[in-house]
Structure formats: structure tokens, C-alpha cells
Specification:
Length: 256
């Protein structure tokens, strides 16, 4: 079940991600922000695109699908059934608990409404990988466009149950900006300060801060800890409903 992953910038701040199964040669693109860098990354490694796993309908995640399919007509496009009208024709229409495979690598779909109403994440349990799209970011979370704010909290609370060693791949390089906000919320979080040093060094070297681990996110990402007494105290919301705490955090970040 050996796999390889390639991660590379697309557009202004998106990531292209390829998941390659060594046993079968199958290769999936997670979303299709921009065809050219994805095609280049495939060519560089001699990989053949077999799958496109779409997380949600936003342009910056789907606009490369047409050009990728032109080059790889056999590539299968999978995505959230409820967003097919906006994404374009899907070969596999996915919902909660559906299984996906990339060659011999097996994953499952987790519905995570909030950023969009139909947003899904892909979790590959054996490989220990989460493709979180625009739901969970390194040190942050996606803007909540299509559901009430508490719905996003439920989605994030679901993701945080995954094993701490899970590698989290998200859709954008927003980590510095997210981290500055997080430090404003929790200036006394030592793990967060440490992580920000690592993040700043990576960015200074032009390297991605993605992936992170779920353990990193649990320790440092305020949006996963709306029920943490320490975080609640930091924003004067001790004892409040976690969904309300999350909503306050997300609203503050929207205004930041
Ligand atoms: Zn998006
Ligand atoms: Fe996006």
C-alpha cells in the first residue's frame, strides 16, 4: 500500500496535490485548481492521471478539470453528488461514507458542510491521509459561505476525531495569515508560537507549510478547540456553547 504524494502551488495560493499508488500506478489529483502545473507535475514523475477527487464546486478547485480530461480522457472524476450541477458531470457521485479508491489505496468520504453546503473531504485511513479541501486549513478553517456557522463547527468536530498522526492536506497556503490570527486569540499558546517559527522558516524558504498533522492542528488551531476551556477563557466566553464560540472566532477572523 505504498504511496507517494506531490504538492505544488497553483494559481495565487492554491495547492495542487497528486496521490500516487505505487502498486498500480494509479494517480489522483485532489481538486483541479489549474491544469498546467498539474500536468507538469504528472509529466515530471511519469505518472498517469487516473482520478480527480473534487472537494467542492468553487472555481479554484474545479476549473482545471476540462483540460486534465483532454489530456487524460480515461480519468474518472469523483465529487459531491449534491454539487454536480455546479461542478460539471461527475463519473462518481459521492456522499457520506462512500468509498473511493485510487488503485489499491482506499479512502472514504466525509461530508463537511460549511464552506459550501456539499463540501466533502477524503480520508485514506490506511495511508493516514486527509484531503480537507477548504474545510480545515493549517491553523485555520475555510470561510463559511453556504451554511449557518454552527454547521461548520460540526464538520470540524468530525474531522478532529481522526487519528492525531493523520497528515492533513488542505487547499490553500493561508498558514501565516491564519497563524497571526491564532496568536491574537491565544498569545500564551506555547505550541502555537513554536509552530509559527517553523511556518515562518518554511515560507521564507519558499516551501509549503502543508501538510500538517491532526496533532499539530489540535494543539494550535483555534477553530478545532471551540470547546477548550483555555481558549474560551482567552476570548471571555467561558462556558459558552462550542458552536457559539466557533461562530465568534470565525466572525472575528472574517473581520480581521
Ligand atoms: Zn473554496
Ligand atoms: Fe479554495
Amino acid at each position: 500500500m505504498a504511496h507517494e504524494i506531490a504538492i505544488f502551488p497553483c494559481l495565487a495560493d492554491n495547492y495542487g496535490v497528486l496521490l500516487h499508488d505505487e502498486a498500480t500506478g494509479a494517480t489522483a489529483a485532489i481538486d483541479a485548481p489549474e491544469a498546467a502545473p498539474i500536468l507538469a507535475a504528472l509529466a515530471e514523475r511519469g505518472w498517469t492521471l487516473s482520478d480527480i477527487l473534487v472537494t467542492h464546486h468553487h472555481k479554484d478547485h474545479v476549473q482545471g478539470i476540462g483540460a486534465l480530461r483532454q489530456q487524460y480522457p480515461q480519468a474518472r472524476v469523483s465529487g459531491p453528488a449534491t454539487e454536480e450541477a455546479k461542478i460539471g458531470a461527475l463519473d462518481l457521485r459521492l456522499g457520506e461514507h462512500d468509498r473511493v479508491s485510487v488503485g489499491s489505496l482506499h479512502g472514504q468520504v466525509m461530508t463537511t458542510p460549511g464552506h459550501t453546503a456539499g463540501h466533502i473531504c477524503y480520508y485514506f485511513a490506511e495511508a493516514g491521509l486527509l484531503f480537507a479541501g477548504d474545510t480545515l486549513f493549517a491553523l485555520g478553517c475555510g470561510r463559511v459561505f453556504e451554511t449557518p456557522l454552527p454547521v461548520m463547527w460540526v464538520s470540524l468536530a468530525k474531522l478532529r476525531q481522526l487519528p492525531p498522526a493523520t497528515m492533513v492536506y488542505c487547499g490553500h497556503e493561508y498558514t501565516m495569515n491564519n497563524g497571526r490570527f491564532a496568536l491574537g486569540i491565544e498569545p500564551d499558546n506555547a505550541a502555537l508560537h513554536q509552530r509559527m517559527q517553523v511556518v515562518a522558516a518554511l515560507r521564507a524558504a519558499g516551501k509549503p507549510t502543508v501538510p500538517s498533522t491532526m496533532a499539530d492542528e489540535l494543539a494550535t488551531n483555534p477553530f478545532l478547540r471551540a470547546d477548550d476551556p483555555g481558549l474560551q477563557r482567552a476570548i471571555n466566553m467561558t462556558g459558552a456553547e462550542p458552536a457559539a464560540v466557533f461562530a465568534a472566532l470565525r466572525s472575528a477572523k472574517d473581520r480581521a
